[in-house]
Protein: High affinity arginine ABC transporter (Permease)
Amino acid sequence: MLDFSLVVQYIPFLLQATVITLEVSVLATALGLVLGLIAALMKISKIQPLVWIADFYIWVIRGTPVLVQLFLVYFGLPQLGIQIGPFSSALIALGVNAGAYIAEIYRGGILSVPKGQREAAQSLGMNYFLIMRRIILPQAFRVSIPALGNQAIMMLKDSSLASLVTVSELMMVSQRFAATNFAFIEFYITASVIYLILTTVFTFILNKIEGRLSISDH
Structure:
C-alpha cells in the first residue's frame, strides 16, 4: 500500500530543495542566454575565426550528452588543478550546454529580421553595434521567445542531473528520503508533482509574456 503520509513530514525539506532547483535552473538559463548571444553574434560575424570558434562550440556541446559535460566539469577539472564546488559545476555545465542551443535560437531570430531594416539603419549613419542594440536584437528576441521558453522549461527538468554531483536539489533530496523510508513511489511521485507545478507556472508566465509581446506588435 502507498502511504503518502510519510512524505508530509519531509515537505519543508522538499520545498527547500525546490528553491535550489529553481536557483540552478534560473542561473544556468541566464548563463546560457549570455553565452548563446555571444556565440550567435560570432556565428553571423564576417570574421572567419570567430565563426569557426562558434561552430566548434555548438558542434561539440550539441553532439555530446549533457551528463558527460557535467562529469567533465565536476570530476575532470579537479584533475587539472581547478577545484569547483557541486553547485558551480552544475551551473557551468548546464549553462554552457544551454548556450549552444540558445545560440541557434538567437541566430534564427536575427536572420528573420528583414535585411532592409539593417540597410535603412546604415543609411541613417548607425554603426553595427547601434543597429544590433536598437533594431536587430529586440526583434530577434521577440521572435525567439517561444523557443527560449521551451529551453527554460527543459533546463528546469535537466536541473535534476545536478543530483548526480551531490547538489541538494529536488531530485537528490527525494532520492535520499525515498531510500531512507523505503517509499520510492511516494517520494518520486511527489517530486514529479512539484516539477509539474513548476513547469506549469513557467509555461503560464511565458505564455503571458508572449501574449503581451504579440499585443505590442499590433
Notes: Residues 5-217 form a domain with the MetI-like fold fold (CATH 1.10.3720.10). The CA atoms of residues 111 and 121 lie 16 Å apart.
